[in-house]
Amino acid sequence: MAPIYGLEIPKWGMTMDEGVVTEWLVGDGAEVTAGQPVVSVESSKLAGEIEAQGAGVMRRQLGQLGETYVVGTLIGVIADADVSDAEIDDFVTGHGAAAGGGSGSGGGAAVGAATDSEGEPLGATETPANTAAPQGDSATSRTPAPAATAAATSPTVPAPAEDTGADRIPEQLRGSDDGEIPATPHALKLAQEHGIALSKITPTGRGGRVSVRDIQEAVSAAGGQVSFGNDRPKVGRLPVTGDDSAVAATPIARRLAAENGINLNGIRPSGRGGRVTREDVLGHLARTTGSAGGTAQPVAQEPARAAAAPSSSESGTGNNTGNKGTQIPLTQMRKVIAGRLQESYQQSPHFRVTTHADIDELLSIRKQINAGRDDARVTVNDLVVGAAAQALLRVPEVNAQYDPAAQVVTQFEHVDLSVAVSTGEGLITPIVRNADQKKITAISAEMTDLATRAKAGTLGPDEFQGGTFTVSNLGMFGVSHFDAIINPPQVAILAVGAGQRQFVPDDDGAPVARTRLPLTLSADHRVVDGATAARFCRELQRILESPSLIFA
């Protein structure tokens, strides 16, 4: 028997448990070679491509664009052309059984055709009421595995339907091309169906290709709307039923679910101890509200806000002035950032300690270090990172992580320092490992490399997961000072503002102009006391004002 190769959602790092199919790089039925990238997948903070394990033909594209699947879910099948459809079907079904997916194990639904009680396939988006795949977590909504959205016997993902009443293509984007505009197969098909000129779309795909997302964003920006794949109207899901009183859930999650008619049995938990959280319910609600056949209702509003919201195409300021707005869906990374920071701010009792450091001597040493350097220059932030690493060794209570479920604090021997970097998708915190053991020039070179690859989206999971402390610097933007939100499970974060020239009294009381650097530590009061935070700030100030200690 000729080999059959499956394409699965990969696991990039210990914390990744799902991925979004963002682009098919080859068409259904296309020939592929071993090692050829065939599909793009995006996790919360990484984007990458899955390569073919062997040569053959793309026989199944089960993963639908924009849909989220749990790690290990089968999203595609590659095999020789002489392999029968029946063999492919058996492979898909067998893969589902081997994956052990299902709500009981916390995984996705098993890959395979969903059938009703008489053995007939259910609708394309239906799931049996008693085997509904869990959905929603704090970062993004989960969807059933591919077989729950397309019968395993179907050779391809259903093609886009003809224009519906919801599809509106602005006139300025209409037209045709000579076929020389680089575009993905799905983008080309979408453009042809709707008469969209690809030459009028700004490409962001790999190799300068136009993607489906590019088309949808351009249409939305021009005031229109175009759906594709799972964006199209769907057959209603069968509601999840049964007593959900035994489902572990936070009080607010249970109340929110009750207010919106949501059965907790249909929500995948992400909280500690397997509890359903408020974010889980909101994620489920965001996915189901407004979809055909959805059972959930909008979140209960206060009386003053009970009026219906404007439609997406006419969303405005709410004062009936006709000022229209553009709705921009959150990216996968932004969803994760939103969920994590909201959870941190709500669950971690933040308190702040602020101080200033005189950095004139530090700036003088920096000038000496950079003198005659042809490569990357050492920045003030590099020196702050080095100083923070040394201060953390002296105050290890702040160089720690906290597990609230186990009520255990872990203090670390060395400093794995996370440094906030802004990217086009959102904030990411690459880590300088063992920063306390590295020279400033090494920290500087590593930070330059990490920041460059963070903005390009090419960091590995181990390069931004597992830090023990975070430094966030907005000084380069002229921000005088700010408060940062703790990055859990860390217990503290340092916010660095812009150095400012200020007059301060010398030993004789005479005013002297000095460069003062504002430093604000946000700490988790569950495990860090005010005196401990003050001790860290004092130690950091001392090191910055006596910068030779950084090199000790």
From TrEMBL:
Its cofactor is (R)-lipoate. It holds the Pfam family E3_binding. Residues 182-219, 248-285 form the Peripheral subunit-binding (PSBD) domain. GO terms for cellular component: cytoplasm. InterPro entries: 2-oxoacid_DH_actylTfrase, 2-oxoacid_DH_E2_comp, Biotin_lipoyl, CAT-like_dom_sf, E3-bd_dom_sf, PSBD, Single_hybrid_motif. Keywords: Acyltransferase, Lipoyl, Transferase. Residues 98-110 have a biased composition (Gly residues). SUPFAM superfamilies: CoA-dependent acyltransferases, Peripheral subunit-binding domain of 2-oxo acid dehydrogenase complex, Single hybrid motif. PANTHER family: DIHYDROLIPOAMIDE ACETYLTRANSFERASE COMPONENT OF PYRUVATE DEHYDROGENASE COMPLEX, LIPOAMIDE ACYLTRANSFERASE COMPONENT OF BRANCHED-CHAIN ALPHA-KETO ACID DEHYDROGENASE COMPLEX, MITOCHONDRIAL. This is Dihydrolipoamide acetyltransferase component of pyruvate dehydrogenase complex. It comes from Kocuria soli.
